């Protein structure tokens, strides 16, 4: 079997109604890709559909059938079974651009040749970044998230990484890790938990030394189902899981003290900002729940950060979002909500 350039992991749970479109776009990569479909204990025809693809494309598609463990469990299973040089997660209700995938694979082929010549990953990127598109139901004009603040078409390090504007941070949709890096850093996402994509896009970053940005609109991120985890009412209902993810991010690195981070100031600034955004989102959701219990959870979250990593907590409270969310009183909470609603329109998150 030809060595694969890219492993696509497709975690599926009751995905029978929409997974075919996703997989059909991935199959255009031909024998340069492998597609690992992870059936996460589905109760519909997901496994049957996946097995049919594996039977028809035995050199491309593999199926992992497992008990239900949630999205993070599916990502973990994909990493465990990946053989490609690079690794990309595609949710089963999303898809990729066929044209952009072809361009990506041509570039990964160049990296694979450089890897073979040297026998080392030291001259290829650990992280490839590409644009993604919000495919919002009923919206004719699609919003494209680009990374024009990054050097284009060249390998670069954190010393040339510019902090992005709001809404242009690295997300699971935009990142393609070198598979070996994920295995080396021992990334394991928690099971039975939503919002673990924030961990995926954060925890491995200090292991990343080289990056490459391609200005292609690769990932198509579908938003439209009322039960999607990114809808605000759903997020408020699952806010305890958002808090749990937030705490895992807090536990993973001491941003003001760890030499792996402090020796690279731009990495440190980016991770501080990323943690500030996630902690602010957790706090705003708790404020918007409009209960005394939720406000207590907000205070407890910031206390947790202060106890676990006082220097990072101090740094965040001196920043715009982190400081603003901690001003006591009803008026300040109302202002925080209004700022949040304004950012929703500007940034485009749900």
Structure description:
The protein is globular. The protein is α/β, with parallel strands linked by helices and 350 residues long. The protein has helices at residues 19-26, 46-56, 71-81, 98-118, 179-185, 197-200, 232-237, 239-252, 259-262, 265-288, 292-308, 310-317, 320-324, 330-347; strands at residues 6-12, 33-40, 61-66, 86-89, 95-96, 127-136, 143-145, 155-156, 175-178, 211-223. The relative contact order is 0.11. It has 14 helices and ten strands. Strands 1, 2, 3, 4, 5, 6, 7, 8, 9 and 10 form a ten-stranded mixed beta sheet that branches.
SSE map:
Elements: E1 6-12, H1 19-26, E2 33-40, H2 46-56, E3 61-66, H3 71-81, E4 86-89, E5 95-96, H4 98-118, E6 127-136, E7 143-145, E8 155-156, E9 175-178, H5 179-185, H6 197-200, E10 211-223, H7 232-237, H8 239-252, H9 259-262, H10 265-288, H11 292-308, H12 310-317, H13 320-324, H14 330-347
Parallel strand pairs: 1-2, 1-4, 2-3, 6-10
Antiparallel strand pairs: 4-9, 5-10, 6-7, 6-9, 8-10
